[in-house]
Design goal:
It is a single chain. This protein has 676 residues and is mainly β. It has one domain (6-675): Maltoporin, Chain A, CATH 2.40.170. It is built from four helices and 32 strands. It has a 22-stranded antiparallel β-barrel. The chain has a five-stranded mixed sheet with strand order 1-6-7-4-5. It has a two-stranded antiparallel sheet with strand order 2-3. It starts with 5 loop residues before the first helix and ends with a strand.
Length: 676
């Protein structure tokens, strides 16, 4: 495969975006001078609220707005979430996927939703968050502990909801084009219109890089796989477009159909660390695609009740090419091409009422079917695995006094496997089917000390069902399946406080503790095909404790200077064995400052410091601690039209989030954006 063929496609794409941007500037310049776009949120896609302008009563959640993601140039979901306390970014490994950890738990325990629809990959629960761009989002809603039971199953460590845009004016949108080191280009355009009885929203985006540059501090340890300069096999290309059409026939009524389509291509940089037991893998993804069709609705029932529905169909397709060496010219005869062709369908219904005084009752039911189809080589047939999940949750927000309220919830989840196949020795075998279920109770108290000062305390017991991969993967013939795996179970405690001090310093803090039982780990068992040897098997043998605290401060120090800082401490303990828990640092600090000497000119700088993290459970591989600084300047040419230029990793530090997979060195960028 020619890894640079996408550049030719990107040329016309960016050209079209440039023409669109110029046209928008000429046609709506006057409109932009009169009105300001506040960034419409697609309320039907939110979970914590049921109507437009409703305030979320669960104050523990965090939100990242579109403007914030653009200001800090966070173009992928993982990079955007890394702005928040309690979140750790991970990138590297054999699959070179962007991943986040929420208070020590990965996205299998903190599922991803798009407008309330679960979009985690059916087979292993791991979506590559580097393939999910942020150009078309209105906000990201992050729940880290006390997560509404209305989300459905598997929210053991929280939930991440990506909320799309909804127009608020007759004509609105934003667009941008940009360049960055590595022959990197980006372009996006979002347009929307709101009419009396209907609205429409659409967007396109493109993100491309031929390579990234390594730091000048990088010292090759395996020159054959990585000599420095341009990182080997580090290209990527992501294209995405979306359409939404909604009807608003009467006050409070809303019915919307959405379509999303994203296509990705990427290479996997090979391992270049110091561990002699690790062999480099020469992998490329010819495609990593997702396509979805969703229906969202809200219907009032009288003055105090409502019903919301979601129906969805998603397709996930990707292909992995394994090569024999770093020339990427000959596919390995042992692995060849591995193809996934998965799909998911399902829906949910939520009803709510405030007919009972001082109570807001919400009941949600979910049904989801996941189908995984895997082809190890083009010569073999597809193996098929199908499982289904049902969930029902009840939540009540109780107003006890003017300053005190409680949120109580409980859900019941059930998972069962319909079919599981394995192809071996030219024969298709049916593997044993399994089923499991779980209850998830929780409760939280929220008290307003003053008009600005609030405290909260919550206890929740949440579960995570084993994935298809957990139950049925042979792990390249090094393990045997276990279809009888039980859910992992966590008890979460959180104490939080938030306030606005001196009328200008916003502060939000949280103490948290999590006790996880039945954590799925690999155990050594007798090989059923050879009693003289042992083999691995996933079992519910783990016990993990996680505790720590977060603090988040933001302030306007003066009319020309804004600043913020957040810090996370996390103690991540494996109580089952001496094995290390990987990919999560003990300390993380993020600081930023924005200086605006005149209205049209701003300077922004941010700094992130992480302590060391383990990259292998035996503790041999360690990604050292690091500090990275980013900076940029922004100039508003006319109202809404802005040009910016900056540098990421200003000090050109050589660092890694995963040992043996160095991150980009000093990277320059420039963007032209317009919002109207």
């Amino acid at each position: 495969m020619n890894e640079f063929v996408h550049n030719k496609r990107g040329g016309w794409f960016l050209g079209v975006l440039g023409i669109l941007l110029i046209g928008v500037l000429l046609s709506v310049e006057g409109l932009a001078a009169e009105t300001k776009n506040e960034g419409g949120v697609f309320t039907l896609g939110e979970i914590e609220v049921s109507a437009k302008n409703e305030e979320a009563k669960n104050i523990t959640i965090d939100k990242l707005a579109d403007e914030e993601m653009r200001e800090f140039n966070r173009d992928t979901v993982a990079n955007a979430l890394n702005l928040l306390p309690g979140i750790t970014l991970s990138q590297g490994g054999a699959r070179s996927e962007q991943m986040i950890y929420v208070r020590g738990l990965d996205v299998r325990h903190v599922p991803i939703f798009l407008d309330g629809v679960p979009v985690y990959v059916p087979y292993d629960g791991y979506p590559d968050l580097g393939r999910f761009t942020t150009f078309d989002l209105s906000e990201i809603v992050m729940s880290k502990g006390f997560t509404s039971v209305l989300y459905g199953p598997n929210t053991m460590g929280g939930a991440i909801n990506l909320v799309s845009k909804r127009p608020e004016k007759a004509f609105e949108g934003n667009a941008g084009v940009g360049w960055f080191t590595g022959n990197g280009y980006q372009g996006y355009a979002n347009f929307g219109t709101k009419q009396k009885r209907w609205y429409a929203q659409g967007g396109i985006s493109y993100l491309n890089s031929d390579y990234f540059v390594l730091s000048d501090e990088f010292k090759p340890t395996r020159a054959r796989t990585e000599a420095g300069g341009q990182r080997e096999n580090s290209y990527y290309w992501d294209r995405k477009y979306n359409l939404k059409f909604g009807l608003t026939p009467a006050e409070g009524h809303e019915y919307a159909v959405s379509y999303f389509n994203q296509h990705g291509v990427k290479g996997v940089p090979p391992y270049t660390g110091t561990d002699s037991t690790q062999s480099p893998r020469y992998w490329q993804w010819p495609y990593w695609d997702k396509e979805g069709l969703y229906f969202n609705s809200r219907t009032p029932i009288g003055d105090k009740s409502y019903a919301k529905t979601r129906l969805y169909y998603d397709k996930y397709q990707n292909s992995l090419a394994t090569y024999t060496d770093g020339t990427y010219s000959r596919i390995s005869p042992q692995s060849s091409l591995s193809n996934y062709d998965d799909y998911t369908y399902g829906g949910s219904v939520e009803v709510g009422t405030s007919l009972i005084p001082r109570n807001l009752l919400k009941l949600a039911g979910h049904y989801k079917a996941d189908v995984h189809r895997e082809q190890d080589t083009p010569a073999n047939p597809y193996e098929r695995t199908e499982e289904k999940i049902f969930s029902i949750g009840l939540e009540d927000t109780i107003t006890i006094t003017k300053r005190l309220y409680a949120i109580l919830g409980i859900s019941y989840d059930r998972q069962w496997v319909v079919e599981a196949e394995n192809y071996a020795n030219r024969t298709m075998y049916s593997l044993p089917e399994g089923k499991t279920d779980a209850w998830n109770p929780q409760g939280g108290l929220f008290y307003s000390l003053t008009d600005t000062a609030k405290i909260n305390f919550s206890i929740s017991e949440k579960t995570r069902f084993p994935t298809m991969k957990d139950k049925y993967s042979y792990r390249w013939n090094s393990a045997i399946p276990n279809p009888d795996l039980k859910p992992e179970r966590a008890r979460n405690y959180e104490l939080g406080y938030q306030d606005v001090l001196f009328k200008r310093v916003a502060v939000k803090t949280a103490l948290f503790y999590r006790d996880i039982k039945d954590f799925i780990l690999q155990a050594t068992v007798p090989d059923p095909n050879n009693p003289r040897r042992t083999i691995s098997q996933n079992q519910n043998v783990g016990h993990v404790e996680q505790y720590g605290f977060e603090v988040d401060l933001s302030t306007s120090l003066m009319t020309t200077l804004d600043a913020g800082v957040n810090y996370t401490y996390l103690d991540n303990n494996n109580r089952s064995s001496s094995d290390k828990l990987t990919d999560v640092p003990e300390h993380k600090l993020f600081v930023y400052a924005k200086y605006t000497p005149v209205k049209v000119l701003s300077f922004l700088a941010d700094l992130e410091t992480d302590s060391k993290r383990y990259s292998s459970s035996n503790g041999v591989r360690i990604a050292k601690g690091f500090t990275v600084v980013n900076a940029k300047a922004m100039y508003e040419i006319i109202k809404g039209l802005q040009i910016e230029a900056g540098v990421r990793n200003l000090l050109d530090k050589n660092y890694a989030l995963y040992e043996g997979f160095p991150m980009p060195g000093r990277t320059f960028f420039s963007n032209l954006t317009y919002r109207f």
